[in-house]
Amino acid sequence: MLQELTQIAREAGDLIRSARDVQSSAAEKTGPRDLVTKYDLMVQELLRRRLLELLPEAGFLGEEGEHSQSLRSREWCFIVDPIDGTTNFIQGYHNSCVSIGLARGGRMEYGVVFNPYDRELYAARRGGGASLNGSPIHCQDRALDHSLLIFGSALYYRELVPQTLGLFNLAFPLVQDVRRFGSAALDLCYLAAGKAGIFFEARLCPWDYAAGALIAREAGCMVSQLDGSAPALFEKSSILAGSPRAYTALLQQFGTAKEN
Ligand code: IPD
Ligand code: CA
Ligand code: CA
């Protein structure tokens, strides 16, 4: 299965790389921060067709479509972001990816995240470890002050600005430095590959984190909501993830700040 998912992610990646005149095809969804292009829709259509050919009985939850509640009752369900990092895609930053998660019985079973520009393909199967282009990857083992923080700005939720900035103020003095890359799925894979130690974002959708969270976990990272509880598979969720040492230290800081 992982091999087939990988192949389909590569096909979707080819479509992303073939995109032309991306800026002129961008339209606003809910406002100027929330954009979609014709390529998001085309890639999702390709993924829906190819993934349901592979597993016809599965449900399909993709960012660019109606979100049916009945998905939860299916044994298998794909959770897909056709282009994670749409703003990067539109602006010509080559930090976007295809994200394919496959859940079984309410638990993530497979995850594939592919950046078609640098051809980095991250993959994991539950219990089978995580890989980058076929080689095993592992999270860092560093203290928080030696860890880079990748920060997600939860940009679609204005009501979360105070919380996001409050968490940022707490975390920034404690970490080595901060990065904001613009694709949550890749952010989680960078933790898995040991390119950074810690990540948080105050709200993400299931398609942003489903595959990346499995890959991070399989590489040894801890992944939870900001309060340490498990994210629900089909719900929007905050995410705190990182190497065990960095994660534990920042979770404690966030918890202590809440109590005061
Ligand atoms: C977004 C990216 C971004 C994150 C947002 C996501 P999109 O996904 O992952 O890094 O900060 O919260 O919604 O809209 O580019 O698919
Ligand atoms: Ca996304
Ligand atoms: Ca997207």
How would you describe what is shown here?
The structure is a single chain. The protein is of the alpha+beta class and 260 residues long. It folds into 2 domains: 136 residues, 2-Layer Sandwich (Fructose-1,6-Bisphosphatase, Chain A, domain 1); 116 residues, D-Maltodextrin-Binding Protein, domain 2 (3-Layer(aba) Sandwich), CATH 3.40.190.80. Helices cover 34% and strands 28% of the residues. A 7-stranded mixed sheet has the order 3-4-5-6-7-8-9, sandwiched between helices. Strands 11-10-12-14-13 form a 5-stranded mixed sheet, with helices on both faces. Strand 8 and strand 9 form a beta hairpin. Helix 5 packs parallel to helix 6. Bound molecules: D-MYO-inositol-1-phosphate (IPD) and calcium ion (CA) (2 copies). D-MYO-inositol-1-phosphate binds next to strand 4, helix 3 and strand 12.
The helix/strand series, from N terminus to C terminus, equals HEEHEEHEEEEEEHEHEHEEH
Query: Tally the helices: what do you get?
Result: 7
Overall mean pLDDT stands at 94
Quantity of strands, as a count: 14
Q: What does the largest sheet look like?
A: 7 strands, mixed
Indicate the CATH topology of the largest domain. Answer: Fructose-1,6-Bisphosphatase, Chain A, domain 1
Give the terminus-to-terminus CA distance: 48 Å
Which regions are unreliable across 5 or more consecutive residues at pLDDT < 50?
none
What class, by secondary structure content?
alpha+beta
CATH superfamily of the largest domain: Fructose-1,6-Bisphosphatase, subunit A, domain 1
What is the helix content? 25-40%
Tell me the domain tally. Answer: 2
Shape-level CATH architecture of the largest domain: 2-Layer Sandwich
CATH domain class of the largest domain: Alpha Beta
Assign an overall shape: globular
- Strand percentage: 25-35%
- Provide the list of bound ligands, each named once: D-MYO-inositol-1-phosphate, calcium ion
- For the CA atoms, what is the radius of gyration? 17 Å
Biggest sheet, spatial arrangement of strands: 3-4-5-6-7-8-9
